[in-house]
Amino acid sequence: DFYIHDSLQRLGYGKELFQHMLQSEQVEPWKLAVDRPSPKLLSFLHKHYGLNQAIPQVNNFVIFEGFFSNRVALPSSRRPLPKHPEEQIKPYSLAERDFLKEETEPPWPFNLRVGLGAGAPGSASPVRGSLRPFLLRR
User: Fold this and answer.
1) Do the Cβ atoms of 18 and 1 come closer than 8 Å?
2) Residue 14's closest CA among 29, 26, 36?
3) Residue 1 lies in a domain
4) How many domains is the chain partitioned into structurally?
5) Residue 4: inside a domain, yes or no?
């Protein structure tokens, strides 16, 4: 990241600084991925380097036309994937789902029935029972 103070902009300092960065990093301007560029930076890149077609990425970076050019594909040491014979593929909605057909009781505490007396099997609270008798005594 770099920034040129407003009072020093349009005096060539930004171009000089940017050009020095490009030379020291040995990179071309269209090979840069810029993280959340400001409109001023995009204007700067357009004016001085002709980068006018910003390609936004999902991670807030912006790249430019030519970013992926001259990439050398590395030889793959992996074997190609075996080809499977063509067979009919069922859509997920039609696939067999036997586990959905079985009705199983949900695990505790989701299998408790509400409204039973205190301490009864399946009561609202297996530890202390219902609070209703306590509230009525007050």
Assistant:
1) no
2) 29
3) no
4) 1
5) no
Structure tokens at 94: 């039609």
For the chain, the three-class secondary structure string (H helix, E strand, C coil) is CCCCCHHHCCCCHHHHHHHHHHHHHCCCHHHCCEECCCHHHHHHHHHHHCCCCEEECCCCEEEECCCCCCCCCCCCCCCCCCCCCCCCCCCHHHCCCHHHHCCCCCCCCCCCCCCCCCCCCCCCCCCCCCCHHHHHHC
Token pair of 24 as six digits: 């020291």
Residue 59 within a domain: yes
Structure tokens at 107: 């695990």
Two tokens, residue 27: 């990179």
Q: Does residue 42 fall inside a structural domain?
A: yes
Q: Is the pTM of this model over 0.90?
A: no
User: What would the pLDDT profile of 49-105 be if each residue is shown by its tens digit?
Assistant: 999 889 999 998 999 988 888 765 555 555 555 565 555 555 555 555 555 556 667
Check which CATH number belongs to the domain holding 57 and give it: 3.40.630.30
Nearest partner of 45 among 6, 24, 19, 71, judged by Cα: 19
Domain that holds residue 48: 29-73
